[in-house]
């Protein structure tokens, strides 16, 4: 088996490992995990509790921006990590400000119960607009917390500088996109209102649309057409863009009218196969890319089996989720985490630590398990919060004295769930 000669790599001199690890765990907890909980609460209309948690995140964001650093071995923190800390501070502050309005705080009202002059624009926004803005900012806060949590190790190890910046950006953006794709799959699977929707277009139609757009962007941005020569990587990434928009267009055609289609899943298989054949300068990099491609191919194949054989082209099994259906989401999340962890500098660090590809892949896959677990817990929290106030009225006669309606329970549950998702109020 091909292995890299680790003797040419010196073991890294890691300083203050304990304090840096604790700092990163605090950042993970207070700038990513806590905002993700508050975002779930905001969507479940538990705004007061979410507002309190966002204040806690804001306090830590202030401390993070003013006093805490993620320095490398030479004591320097890169500008991207530092800038993200300040951006998080202002985004947290804005989210808390909008959250105070959404939670009904009266600090912008005068003694007569009227809006103060400097806050007249708040009254013009309206309650629904404030709710939408607060939800949007809460999601952005969680996404930015994810970016900060990923940038911290990059800064501490001095990665992604000079000529390595482009590769790190590509791996970070694409890896996060695959993770997000897997989380969207999980969201659609777990939330009944979305899973059993009667919308005119299926999920596969929108998957095809996104792949078409992304493929067009990839085709014309991965290589400077007419301004530079073609290289090995240019051919691979441009070809991937071409197959995405070509297949995406076919998926749009086959998925019209709400029909299911396997095209997006097939594109994942081709993408995974291409990545598994993607030879790198380092043997460990080739092996990690192979595992990334394998995960994508497995996810695509399972998705085809789910659509064609398990669901038989239906959108869902009413009121039921098969254990098999959780696997495609995990495969996408694992592939995304593997791709983020496959940049060259990071893999050189693995060699410098005298570890091998199998150990590294298992640790990275462990992160994928934890990410998937956390997202499923958030979805479970949302479902419990939005269903806690449901009342069964099917066993009671109406005011007019008529007999109970045997279908009332199902109709009421559905109607209440839809209403709660958009207009529920915290008690």
TrEMBL record:
The chain crosses the membrane at residues 22-44, 51-70, 85-108, 137-157, 169-192, 288-311, 361-383. It comes from the Eukaryota. Residues 399-427 are annotated as: Disordered. Residues 145-380 form the Protein YTP1-like C-terminal domain. The keyword Cell inner membrane does not apply. Keywords: Membrane, Transmembrane, Transmembrane helix. The keyword Signal does not apply. PANTHER family: INTEGRAL MEMBRANE PROTEIN (AFU_ORTHOLOGUE AFUA_6G12730)-RELATED, PROTEIN YTP1. This is Protein YTP1-like C-terminal domain-containing protein. It comes from Wickerhamomyces anomalus (strain ATCC 58044 / CBS 1984 / NCYC 433 / NRRL Y-366-8). The lineage of its organism: Eukaryota, Fungi, Dikarya, Ascomycota, Saccharomycotina.
């Amino acid at each position: 088996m091909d292995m890299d000669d680790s003797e040419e790599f010196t073991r890294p001199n890691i300083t203050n490992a304990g304090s840096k690890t604790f700092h990163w765990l605090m950042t993970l907890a207070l700038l990513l995990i806590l905002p993700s909980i508050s975002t779930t609460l905001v969507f479940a209309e538990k705004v007061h509790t979410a507002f309190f948690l966002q204040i806690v995140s804001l306090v830590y964001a202030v401390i993070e921006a003013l006093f805490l650093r993620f320095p490398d071995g030479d004591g320097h923190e890169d500008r991207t990590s530092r800038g993200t800390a300040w951006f998080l501070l202002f985004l947290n502050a804005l989210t808390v400000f909008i959250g105070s309005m959404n939670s009904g705080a009266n600090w912008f009202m005068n003694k007569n119960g009227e809006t103060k002059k400097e806050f007249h624009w708040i009254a013009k926004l309206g309650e629904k607009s404030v709710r939408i803005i607060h939800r949007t900012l809460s999601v952005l806060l969680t996404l930015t917390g994810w970016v900060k949590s990923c940038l911290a190790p990059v800064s501490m190890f001095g990665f992604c500088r000079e000529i390595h910046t482009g590769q790190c950006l590509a791996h970070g953006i694409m890896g996060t996109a695959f993770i997000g794709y897997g989380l969207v799959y999980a969201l659609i699977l777990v939330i009944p209102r979305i899973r059993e929707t009667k919308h005119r277009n299926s999920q596969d139609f929108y998957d095809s649309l996104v792949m078409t757009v992304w493929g067009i962007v990839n085709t014309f941005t991965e290589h400077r057409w007419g301004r530079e020569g073609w290289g090995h990587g240019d051919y691979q990434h441009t070809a991937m863009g071409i197959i995405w928009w070509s297949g995406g267009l076919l998926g749009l055609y086959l998925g019209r009218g709400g029909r299911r289609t396997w095209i997006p899943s097939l594109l994942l298989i081709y993408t995974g196969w291409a990545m598994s054949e993607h030879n790198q300068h380092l043997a460990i990099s080739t092996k990690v890319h192979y595992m990334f491609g394998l995960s994508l191919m497995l996810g695509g194949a399972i998705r085809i089996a789910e659509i064609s054989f398990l669901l038989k082209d239906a959108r869902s099994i009413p009121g039921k989720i098969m254990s098999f259906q959780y696997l495609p989401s995990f495969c996408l999340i694992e592939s995304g985490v593997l791709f983020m962890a496959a940049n060259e500098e990071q893999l050189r660090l693995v060699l410098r630590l005298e570890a091998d590809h199998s150990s590294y892949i298992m640790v990275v896959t462990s992160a994928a398990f934890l990410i998937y677990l956390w997202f499923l817990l958030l979805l479970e929290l949302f479902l419990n919060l939005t269903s806690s106030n449901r009342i069964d009225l099917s066993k009671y006669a109406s005011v007019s004295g008529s007999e109970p309606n045997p279908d009332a329970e199902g109709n009421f549950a559905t109607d209440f769930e839809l209403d709660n998702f958009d207009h529920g109020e915290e008690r």
